Amino acid sequence: MRTEQEEQRAATRIAVGLTVLGLVALALLVWGASAALPVFSTWIDSTFSPGLGLKTSAIVAAVVSVVVIVVFAIAAGDGLIGEFQFMVPGFFLFFIFFWLMTAWVF
Predict the structure, then answer these.
(1) What is the pLDDT along the chain (106 residues), one digit of tens a residue?
(2) How far is CA 82 from CA 67, 69, 74, in A?
(3) Exposure pattern of 52-71 as b/e (b: 16+ CB <10 Å)?
(4) Nearest 5°: phi and psi at 94?
(5) Nearest to 54 by CA among 106, 94, 93, 90
(6) 25, 37, 60, 84: which is deepest, by most CB within 10 A?
């Protein structure tokens, strides 16, 4: 049988081991992010440098609005038809918001 002091020592070893393992994982994550940052920054620069116009952002906003409305309708529990009178104005509000914010930000 183990004494209480031995159990305490084993628990301390486990805690220290998990802490060291977590710090090593965090260091690897930071190292990986810093190594990948130049690759991502050149991709972002080449992809988004011209910017999105109102036409392109309207397409993006329509797709995002439809997806959000469908998710909300399914989550509401009444299906796609149950809350139709609220979904149509909600769609247009989401569309206007996403359209203008996408054109403004990008």
Answers:
(1) 778 899 999 999 999 999 999 999 999 999 988 888 877 777 767 766 666 777 888 888 888 888 888 887 777 776 556 667 777 888 888 888 888 887 777 6
(2) 17, 13, 10
(3) beeeebbeebeebbeeebee
(4) -60, -45
(5) 106
(6) 60
- Tokens 């710090």: give the residue: 23
Q: Measured on CA atoms in the order 67, 54, 56, 48, is the torsion positive or negative?
A: negative
For the chain, the domains span 1-49, 50-106
Enter the pTM of the model: 0.44
Query: Residue type at 13?
Result: R
What are the tokens at 84? 């139709």
**C-alpha–C-alpha distance, residues 62 and 67, integer Å:** 9
- As given in the structure block, the two tokens for residue 74 are 């399914």
- For residue 40 the two structure tokens come to 């991502």
Residue 90 CB contacts under 8 Å (≥ 6 apart), including other chains:
69, 72
| Tokens found for residue 67 | 């997806």
